[in-house]
Amino acid sequence: MKTYLSEIFSSIQGEGPYVGERHLFVRFCACHRKCVYCDTNTELTDYCIVERRPGSGEFEQVKNAMSEQQVFDLIQEVNAKTRNNRISITGGAPLMQHRFLLKLLPMLKNEGHNIYLETAGDLPSQLMSIIEFIDVIAMDVKLESVTEEPATFPAHWQFLKICRDYEVETFVKLVLSANTHEGELMEAAKGIKKAGGEDTLVIIQPMTKASRTDAVPSGEQLFRWQDKVASVLPNVRVIPQTHKMLEML
Q1: For the packed helices 98-110 and 68-79, what is the interaxial angle rounded to 10 degrees?
Q2: Is 211 helix (H, G, I), strand (E, B) or coil?
């Protein structure tokens, strides 16, 4: 079995409650979403770029597609050069490659790695197949008014309930823009509470300007939305994409 990766590198986690930790990022190609604010190249690429020496800006091209053993060996090699708290499985949409992950993740767990899954949070059946190997889940709940795609709330609530039932540490990320519809936001907050419980950690992430949109929310909007969400889910924080401020991968 083989898969397509776009990048393997070690960097500082720039989003969510683990911001500032050192993670080794494994970025999968392909995504089923087309969020207007996304600037990540999700196309299948001929080569995966690997930064073997963190922060060097020197990248080696490794030909796609790769087997689970090839990916495992690259992760082990890059990880040996620095101390990473977690292996961040990201994309694209890594759960689209759940069959590959079902081979790779046990290999990583056997080496004692902590697995951090970054996900759109709307592929519950794919999550079920690998959840036993996941330590932390960073899941999106996507708003139609922000992504400019149809909402998938039922899939999000099923996904979040699985996370809760399996007692996997999970936080929910809400990317918000100047176009965020407040009614939709509150519907999402109530859905999160019902599916994940009142103690679910919610991260409000202000949208970063992207090639297809510049609808960055104002401070006034963020303050208002934080207050609104906190009326339903008290554990809510505003955390921007700090790695983009630092111009890091």
Answers
A1: 40
A2: coil
Q: Tally Cβ neighbours within 10 Å of residue 105.
A: 22
* Alpha carbon distance 9, 84 (integer Å): 11
Question: Which residues are within 8 A (CB) of 51 and not within 5 positions of it... i.e. 6 or more apart?
Answer: 7, 8, 9, 10, 57, 58, 59, 60, 78, 249
Confidence at residue 200, expressed as pLDDT on a 0 to 100 scale: 98
- What's this model's pTM, rounded to 2 decimal places? 0.96
Spatial contact of 116 and 87, defined as CB atoms under 8 Å apart: yes
188 SS3 class: helix
Q: Would you place residue 249 in the very low, low, confident or very high pLDDT band (cuts 50, 70, 90)? A: low
Q: Is 213 helix (H, G, I), strand (E, B) or coil?
A: strand
Is 119:131 a contact under the CB 8 Å cutoff? no
Q: How many CB atoms lie within 10 A of CB 23?
A: 21
Buried b or exposed e, range 53-70, using 16+ CB within 10 angstroms:
ebeeeebeeeebbbebeb
CB atoms within 10 A of CB 49: 16
